[in-house]
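Repro:
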Amino acid sequence: MIKEAIRHNPNSNMAYAYDTDHLHIYLQTGKSNIDKVEMLFGDPHEWIPVNGQYHWVIETKERKTLEKKYSTELFDYWFTEEVAPFKRAKYAFILYKGDEVYFYGSKRLMKIDLEADRKIIYDGFEYFCYPYMNEEDIVKPLPWIQDTIWYQIFPERFRKASNTKGNYLPWGEYPNGINNKMFFGGNILGIIEAIPYLKNLGINGIYFTPIFYASTAHKYDTIDYFKIDPSFGTNQQFKQMVKACHQAGIKVMLDAVFNHCGWFHPYFQDVIRKGKKSKYYDCFYIESDEIINFPLKNNAPKIEGRVYPNYRTFAFTPFMPKLNTSNPIMEKYLLKVASFWIKKFDIDGWRLDVSNEVSHAFWRKFKQVVTKIKPDIYILGENWEDSTPWLGRDQFNAVMNYELSYPIWQFFTFKEVNRINAQEFSYKINEILVRYPRNVAGQMFNLIDSHDTMRILHRANQNKDIVKLAYLFLFSFCGSPAIFYGDEIGLDGGKDPDNRRCMIWDETKQDKELFAFFQWLISLRKSFSSLKNIDIKWLYTENNILIYQKDDIFFFINNNNQNQTLSLPEIIKNKKVTDLYSNEIIHLKDDLSIKAYGFSIFKTI
């Protein structure tokens, strides 16, 4: 037995209240190292009369066998869902390996004899404890999230209204490359014009990168958080757009850049002028009396090479001073911003930029404020790594699930140094599934690319069949899938800022076949609830081929540059099925042929 592989953490993602009645419990063991796991489970205070004597309830109950739910390269994860009628529990595990039996509780792991060691086995002090299932601590998923297909829009490059005036570059023309100081005139009225297109595509949620007044094209350097950037339009036009989206059944999520502001924000300009005499001085992290330690041009940083400002910033850019969210003035200001756009404009979500660099204390206050106004508002963090500390009841509903993006890039595309095979891919997906509680996993914002990454078409060396495979997996995964604007019509782009190209509106240049695929994929997601389920049953993960099952739907993905003939798993051999892509009823035999970079999806009849 690999003893050091055995692990359980109470009151964590390995033991949590799924709802007001059920506890979800996981145990980790070494890969293929344990034959069977049982659980001893019961109320810590319940005693039952047996033959004239009182016995702890756990002594009177049959042990429950746990399910081996997921496996990774190193570990197996065993799972059970238990009812706790009195909202509390104590529990321990019995592990079997060959002829050996082990007890694992909160104090020790030890080899036992099930009859001779009953005093240890039923000693409550040896047990893990779930003290109480307080309802206010239980994560309650927002019902509308798992039914939402997001579409991310970078407003400056999405659509310019037909009557737009101004000194803008010709739409989509950048022969010498693209940068964040180029303005093409994308605006709110253009987005309103595009609502029929978005409705035809089938999406029902839009995530906008920042739209507030700022100096760059990307708008992550906010000057005024209460004002729509004039190049995009007016506050009234934004209100008109939100109303039009809602009438079309589309939710609206804005980007909250609360980790930092822009150089020209009036609070920071006041600090530059007055130094310590500014009432906003402690709204930032000023680390030297000499605030500006670099040259200026037109009252803005003139940077050549790396500079280390004498104030904290986002990354090392002096254009984005970091905000001190614990300062009362700044805290009040930002919470007012968060409230303003919900109260006045009825937005449905906030995406929180660089959320892992802002204090947990601020995000707790943020959630209290926004949910008081709109209880079902979606709070989405931009965290790129394990985000467990943020995903309890008191901060975020979800994060941008880049930890799902990584293995998708590594398996399906060519731009990653650390390529992985099909089995490694399944292991990484399983790791994600055990990382977060199941009532959190269904809320995650799942993406393949964004304004911060190269586009999936670029990663796939312009092979749109690979783009289809990657998005097919994304849409078959639990959580809420997202499309980066233009992916659906073949928009290409490398690393930032090349990934922020202008949307293609010339229909002769759009990939109509790819657009039709995305329409079908969205329809599939909406039609079959199985795709939203948490669990994946892997049936085959070899030779760059994935076969997996979600309820009565079977997915076959051939991530090879050659046609493949597969021997079908026994569970689906010789079955009558519906081909969900062609909508034909077919009778499967023993084998299945799939073209290079192709797929099949069958629903059993």
